[in-house]
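Example protein was shown:

_____
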Amino acid sequence: MRGMRALASLLLWAWALPALAALDADLVLVHGHDPARLLSAYAAAARAPRKGSDAAARLPPVIAWAEGEEQWTQDLIDRIAPRKTVWIAPPDVPADTLRIPGRVQRIVASDDEIGLAIAEAAFSPSDRPSAVWVADERDPASAIAASALAAVHRSPLLVATGRLTEAVHAAATLAERLSADEVVVVGKADQGRLASQLGTKVRVLTHQDALRALRAKVRGTRRLVAVAPADARGPFSPPKLSLVAVPYVLAKGAALAYVGEGPGEGKTPEDVVHQLESQGEGPFDFITLIGDWLAIPLREVQDIDQVARGAENPRVHKIPPFVDLEGAPSDRYVGRLAALDAFDLSRWIARIVHGIEAKGVDGVLVFANAHDKFILGETISRTTSAELANAGVKVRSYYRDQITKELIEREIPRHALVLWEGHPTDLTLGDDALPAPGRPLPPATVFLQGCYTLDRSDPFVLVERGANAVLGTYMAVYSSSGSAFARAYVNAQVHRGATAGEALASARNYLLTVVELKKRRGFSDWRKTLRAALSFDLWGDPEAPPPVQTRAPKKPAVAARLRGNRLTVTIPASPLPLAQAGPYEASVRPGGALAGLYDFVENEEGEVVGRRLSELFFVEVELPESFGDAPTISAPYPEQTYAWVFSPRTRTLSLLIHQDALPRPGAAAALQFTVIPTPPPVPSDG
């Protein structure tokens, strides 16, 4: 009875507050990540999406924070510069912990009362919400789905911190006060018993029902977000990332699915997508996983090169989701959002969703071969810098002993794209080797091109400090393959405006065509290249646009055009500046490609004096359905001068051409290829 009397007094107190259609804020600060506070805040802050938006609901930045997070939280507050802030916290949190400009509305209550206080501050009878939603904090799968659905319907949510029936009774009282049509309970409850007790309409949904209802609201979307609600209650580290997924899901207008939740639900992201698409949902092109690899595990496989060579104890590597071990083309655009804790992730999602930028940050920073071990990779990296400069991008490039700790600390915070190429310990010999432990970073993209760069603390630390995306690897990669991958990624963004996920898929498919070309040319080391193609992953939003603006290249780039079944690849005459490092040199046209293939350079006496990298040309075109699912390529050039892969799902043909197909070295050309449709099936004798 004491709990109900406290609830009644809270209702009387809350009714005196000026109510709004949603929390009237440019920023919502939530102390902690308790579902009763956080999930209720999402529902109360939601507004109708803007016209023409794909979003399912529109929220201001909602940031979860706690003691120890003040510095990074304050940095984001300063970037947002809100005029109106809603502060949601328990009574014992000091009000002066953060410097908040403008007007601050404070909603302060204990955990068992905060949900009702939030609802009463955001809704009034004139809003006429369709329902009051209820979930149990002990059932995060239901509570997350309820929060998202309540936000879509712009209705209040109460999350039970004690007995569910008490929260349902409070919801019924609130529903009567707001003239809501019903109370909707997401989770396990007896609908008939509750209805008879309350005298109001009560509907009970399982969390699977709620997810289906949410997906029905965004039917036709090609975006999917997968989370693992088990991380909110199990022995996981980092914990509770699934709880802060709601704003990202709503802003994207994405379908929401759970990984590994229960009977009939997918145990892996691939299972989830296959199951939903087989039921007629999707198809899903952009897929975001929210959770670390404890919550959403990666597959583990033995090193394909060592297995082929008969190694006694092959290394075991992690493999990103939706990557085929046999080398099938990449055909989905995938990113992962993982962080040290829910506080870091809430800030990261706010930066992504709201396009929060930093002043005075521009251009690209390239660090390559800091310890003078990867000369071949450095040569390729130098051409990447030239590619960016040719597209009008400001580039600062440093190599070998030019790279110092002081330079790292000074330069990394000034750039929108940081391309680090080399051994990972060059960047983080210790935590203080990063750009000052106490110094926030801009919302930049950081490409860590090296071995095992996502198996370290680097991505977590970079995200905590403000980075918007981190690309890296889960296994060992040779510098030539890694630098070739980075160059292909940059080319996709510079010349085609590819998103982060699209550029990742394009670069992966580039290395897969290199594998096919190596096979055609008789190289036995193709598995090393395949291993690199399988290695890279994106921690970030797969729909993120290029981090730097480009212009039409000063020198024209390699281009492709499909007319009928004739594919023409135009090779321009003018190359980028010659790149040299140690015994290696490379001359490549804009939009061209490189790998670890090279020819020896001899002097007049026949002595080897250097190595010139073979120039490659990589293009992608979309084929009509009429070409079928297994088209082939023919050309009047030797078979060992070109190779391709084709993705039936995206209809993308990826074609790689070796410089030996040119009429003479370094020549401009318009190379002609014929795309041959898939032959019709041979009728059986029967």
The radius of gyration is 28 Å. The chain has a mean pLDDT of 91. DSSP finds 18 helices and 32 strands in the chain.
